[in-house]
Amino acid sequence: MQAGQRYTFFQTARWSRKYIRMFLLFDTLVVVAYHFLRWEWMLMPWQPLSLIGIAVAFYLGFKNNSSYERLWEARKIWGGIVNTSRSFTVLVRNWVNNDESIRKLNEDELDILRKELVHRHVAWLHALTFEMRKLKDWEHVASNDVVMRKVLGTEFHDGQFDKLRSYLSAEDHAYVMSKGNRSSHLLALQTKRLTELRQDGLIEHFRHLSMQQLITELYTLQGQSERIKNFPFPRQYASVNYFFTVLFIVLLPFGMLDVFTEMQHDYWIWFSIPFSVVASWVFWMMEMIGDYSENPFEGLYNDVPISTIAAGIEIDIRQMLEETDLPPIPKAASDMNIQI
After folding, report:
1. What is the CB-side half-sphere exposure of residue 95 using CA atoms within 13 A?
2. In sequence order, which residues have a C-beta less than 8 Å from that of residue 173 and are 6 or more positions away?
3. Per residue in 83-107, pLDDT tens?
4. Which of 85, 114, 157, 93 is nearest to 310 (CA)?
5. What is the tens place of the pLDDT at every residue in 226-281?
6. Which residue from 14, 95, 110, 286 could staple onto 60, CB 3.0 to 4.6 Å apart?
7. Is the dihedral of CA 251, 252, 253, 259 positive or negative?
8. For the chain, which residues make up each domain, given as ranges?
9. Which positions ≥6 away from 333 have C-beta within 8 Å?
């Protein structure tokens, strides 16, 4: 997502430049047709147009509020993943021990067990990140969006799951790759392993229950992420909002003509072109912002930066085990100063 204070005006204009050109061409054609052909029927009273504009503004406000709620809920979910990951790692570090173990392990063997659990959790983080990047039918697939995903490194491909090999045993990796929802089965493996450690006495019974509650919480947070990812902003609202915005933009230059033809000099009608373009751009930008905010996991510049969050969690929890061979946190990229 955007990492700077704000987008610059020129970045915003460049993002919507295709539509600005369309508005400029259409609005100019309307004025030229009226000026040279004197088609008086092209003049539209401003009062009915203003009523349509008010209705469109209400629709845009509703859509943007709803899209922001989806975006902010996604960020809160991943904030919960941060906190739960830290809690789980602290419990693994302190509660996997020989206090009640059937067979006493030396400290190196205990460290291997702790790293196994924490690394499996890191694998879950990355698997969930990859699965959140799978494109849905309602997400943006225009050519510039495809290019942006390549630039950011957020495009989904099945080979990304090979990264999990460095965190899992060969057996666990093969098992996970045979499943559909791989992150869900990683949590299942974690539960199975915690049960085995409890049976061996390496985790005390009540401590095991506390750790399993955190696994259950991770299931909940994953399900909440999947709910946002797999269920779009209701299509009926998105469709009507789009149609009404387009209708208003199409009618707008005719209303502007009516306003500027009442001016004292004929040349004033040419001022209706820039005013129509600016007004159209304002309404269309509101539509675009809502449209690009409603899918917070699609790997574009206005997303929740789950790759950065996952990398930050990995560094944080592995440092709790005194590991030093850590990955770098993804940095802001491109001239838009974005994180992914």
Report:
1. 21
2. 164, 165
3. 999 999 999 999 999 888 888 889 9
4. 85
5. 999 999 888 888 888 899 999 999 999 998 888 878 776 777 888 889 999 999 99
6. 286
7. positive
8. 9-320
9. 151, 152, 339, 340
Burial of 179-213, coded b for 16+ CB within 10 Å and e otherwise, reads eeebbbbbbbbbeeebeebbeebbbeeebbeebbe
- Copy the structure tokens of residue 88: 């789980």
User: CA–CA separation, 336 vs 14, rounded Å?
Assistant: 11
Nearest-angstrom CA–CA distance, 68 and 308:
20
Radius of gyration of the chain (CA): 27
Rounded Cα distance between 217 and 88, Å, is 10
Count of beta carbons in the 10 Å neighbourhood of residue 152: 21
C-alpha dist (Å) from residue 113 to 106, 180, 310: 11, 27, 22
User: What does the block give as tokens for 218?
Assistant: 């991770």
Residue 108, token pair as written in the block: 């190196």
**Rounded to an integer, what distance in angstroms lies between the CA atom of residue 202 and that of residue 109?**
11
For the record, the structure tokens of 165 come out as 């090999």
Tell me the HSE value of 284 on the side-chain side, using a 13 A CA sphere.
22
- In angstroms, rounded to a whole number, what is the distance separating the alpha carbons of residues 246 and 211? 53
- Give yes or no for residue 338 having a pLDDT over 50: no
Joined tokens for residue 170? 């060969």
Q: Which residues pair with 333 in a beta bridge?
A: 338
Assigned token pair, 236: 């009926």
Q: If DSSP codes are grouped into helix, strand and coil, which group holds residue 99?
A: coil
Residues paired with 198 in a beta bridge: none
